[in-house]
Amino acid sequence: MARRAARLFPGHGARRMSTSTLAFEEMEDNAAHSKEKTVMFLHGLLGSARNWRGFAKRLQYAIDPAWRIVMVDLRNHGQSGELELSPPHDIPAAARDVADLIRARPELHPDVLVGHSMGGKVTLEFAKSSMERKYGSMTVPRQLWVLDSVVGEVPIKNEEGEVERVLETIRTLPQVIPSRRWLVERMQELGFSKGLANWLGSNLKAISPGSEESKWVFNFDGAYSMFTSYRKMDYWSLLENPPAGSDIGIVRAGRSDRWTPEIIARLEELSRAAPEDGRRGSVTYRVLENAGHWVHADNPEGLLELLLPSFQS
Fold first, then answer.
1. Model-level pTM?
2. Are 146 and 251 in contact (CB under 8 A)?
3. Most buried among 6, 36, 73, 300, using CB within 10 Å?
4. How many CB atoms lie within 10 A of CB 120?
5. Where are the beta strands (DSSP E) in 136-290?
6. Rounded CA separation 58/28 (Å)
7. Residue 13 in contact with residue 57, Cβ under 8 Å?
8. Which among 79, 90, 52 has a CA at the least distance from the CA of 224?
């Protein structure tokens, strides 16, 4: 049985919810509109639902109030990190968690599903498994957005990548972080951008009320297992035969370090391919300029402009 958490977040317009599976946030507004359509956001590695609050607020002002905006905490992340979800901690399990959440709360079934980084592959797995009827009668969202997530296998040896550098840096930090300000300053000293440092700081919670000392809101070992799975999963076959009635939008961050010329050429070719008599969906490829991997932090206005047609069609 689903239950509603009572805690509110003043100033953000979001309410925290929980079920027997994943925790999530839903944006609130004062308009007396029924919510007829849903957009769901899936965060990336070491992220959480609250990382998307600022962007969700921008989106809320820009789209029809009939849209429900939902942000999910994936397993090992945010408040879902406190749940005892069975291993393996991998992409298929994370997608199945999303399906379980929707079974518990059918109104949350997304018309638009947006996944960033690792969440992008969870989005693709959800679409693939829905198409293959692994979740029963659950349908594929009509629009899927995959934000700066390489759809194929990612080389294991990529130690110079930004994500890998972040993971290795977190391993070196104390388990109890003295304060969010300390973390932001330390990450900048190590060469990371202020935007990225502030984003990491949003993944801290105080170890006790009123204390500056904090700990991470994610389960690092479980999250690392999910990252290992992320690097191994390959969804090129899904893009070559996208589900009928759906469009899969792939967004590359202009300053991202994970895209090879071969991957870009393959995506451009798939984007040019026209659907055949409605028997298959479509693939859309876009580039978000002036953004690194954390697209919603680097260029939220550009990302909003890119996604808006999904809510206006």
1. 0.86
2. yes
3. 73
4. 26
5. 143-147, 204-206, 214-216, 247-253, 282-288
6. 13
7. yes
8. 90
261 CB-near residues (< 8 Å, 6+ apart):
none
Task: Return the C-alpha torsion angle 215, 76, 258, 234, nearest 10.
Answer: 170
pLDDT tens, residue order, the chain (313 aa): 232 332 333 334 565 555 568 999 999 876 657 889 999 999 999 889 988 999 999 999 999 999 999 999 999 999 998 898 999 999 999 999 999 999 999 999 999 999 999 999 999 999 999 999 999 999 999 999 999 999 999 875 554 567 778 888 998 899 899 999 999 999 999 998 887 888 888 888 899 998 999 998 889 889 999 999 999 999 999 999 999 999 999 999 999 888 999 999 999 999 988 766 667 899 999 999 999 888 998 899 999 999 999 998 6
For residue 16, the number of C-alpha atoms closer than 13 Å in the C-beta half-sphere is 14
User: Burial of 311 by CB count in 10 Å (0-12 exposed, 13-18 middle, 19+ buried)?
Assistant: middle
Per DSSP, 51 falls in state G
Written as six digits, the tokens of 175 are 């388990």
